[in-house]
Specification:
The protein is of the alpha+beta class and 351 residues long. It has 5 helices and 21 strands.
Length: 351
């Protein structure tokens, strides 16, 4: 027993000695001692404030009256929100395209109805956005580049047929198969006819210098080129992920699927900079059930030699949509694709 008391006393004596030496050391000027005390009391005040806030919030939660979660599934969003608010519950709204359920109808909720909770508890509701549709823009007369940029921005699937005619301006859209302002299911492609001096087997190299890796990769693929990504070490941090050089000269005409090498900036002053590589992942969305034309949930995860999984893509996508994901990885990387929570593809990239 005496030994235990002695050990405790010795511990506190050491703490006191270190405290005195740190805050009152004779070889440290008075301003530094004052600064050390200010920092210590600021940290102590922060800890006390966090404790008080967490205590108050805990008391508030415990003291809040109880209520039962109402059933809001199958109700319209406005009615569901009103009923939940009347019960003193917070609301978190998530949306999903669901062709079989009308727009703004609640598909699901959590917690389930009938459960007793404290007022202020958040209830998550999943709301249908109906069919995933798009409104057809008018593209006739626009250049091919303008039309494609707009369609990508609006996430509209499309297909281009090239003709060669002296009757129309070069590189312009001369026809589209759907009328302007028509509302169409997103699974339906918008078909365009473009007058071009290129043959159907040729591609024109776009200017990609200075563009971000995402934009450059999509532009190159849209032009009909195959893309290879190479690292370009730079001391300018703002050039990270920017195309610094391209192997094919802009505006030259080459056979379709010709490979273009893009040198992309990597900030040289990060650890292991020379071991990082850029890779290009592409995937065309296909459902497990070919008869199913509804949107699917896509999750793309990458793991490199850092051993930390990184989400490259997490969203819904329509059937036939091409997903283009350039990414940076340390050394060898493995990419997995999950569709509706099922693993459908795994690919390994090696430097």
């Amino acid at each position: 027993m005496q030994d235990w008391k002695y050990r405790i006393r010795l511990f506190f004596e050491k703490v006191e000695d270190k405290w005195v030496r740190y805050f009152s050391a004779q070889n440290v000027d008075i301003y530094r001692r004052i600064f050390r005390k200010m920092v210590f009391f600021a940290i102590l005040s922060g800890i006390v404030a966090l404790f008080v806030i967490s205590t108050v919030l805990s008391i508030h939660r415990i003291a809040a009256p109880k209520t039962k979660v109402p059933a809001v599934k199958s109700l319209e969003l406005f009615d569901a929100v009103r009923i939940l608010q009347e019960r003193g519950l917070a609301i978190d709204i998530e949306t999903k395209f669901e062709p079989s359920v009308p727009r703004y109808i609640v598909i699901d909720q959590f917690p389930k109805p009938g459960i007793t909770v404290r007022q202020g508890r958040t209830v998550k509701i999943l709301v249908s956005m109906g069919k995933d549709t798009y409104t057809v823009p008018y593209l006739v007369g626009k250049t091919r580049e303008e039309a494609e940029n707009l369609l990508r921005q609006l996430n509209i699937p499309y297909e281009i047929t090239v003709i060669q005619s002296d009757e129309y301006a070069l590189n312009t859209v001369v026809s589209q198969d759907k009328k302007e302002n028509l509302v169409v299911d997103r699974s339906e492609k918008l078909m365009l006819i473009v007058n071009s001096d290129l043959k159907s087997t040729e591609a024109r190299v776009p200017s990609l210098l200075g563009k971000s890796i995402d934009t450059a990769a999509r532009d190159a693929i849209s032009a009909g080129l195959s893309v290879k990504l190479l690292p370009f070490l730079t001391d300018d941090e703002t050039k990270e992920g920017i195309v610094m050089a391209q192997s094919l000269e802009a505006n030259t005409v080459v056979p379709k699927n010709t490979e273009i090498a893009l040198e992309v900036g990597i900030y040289a002053r990060v650890p292991s900079a020379t071991q990082y590589r850029y890779y290009l992942f592409t995937h065309t969305v296909r459902s497990m059930n070919e008869a199913d034309t509804s949107d699917v949930s896509i999750l793309v995860v990458m793991v490199d030699e850092n051993s930390r999984p990184i989400q490259l893509f997490n969203s819904t996508a329509s059937q036939g949509q091409l997903i283009v994901i350039p990414f940076k990885a340390l050394g060898t990387a493995t990419v997995q694709v999950f569709i509706n929570n099922s693993l459908v593809r795994e690919e390994t990239y090696v430097p």
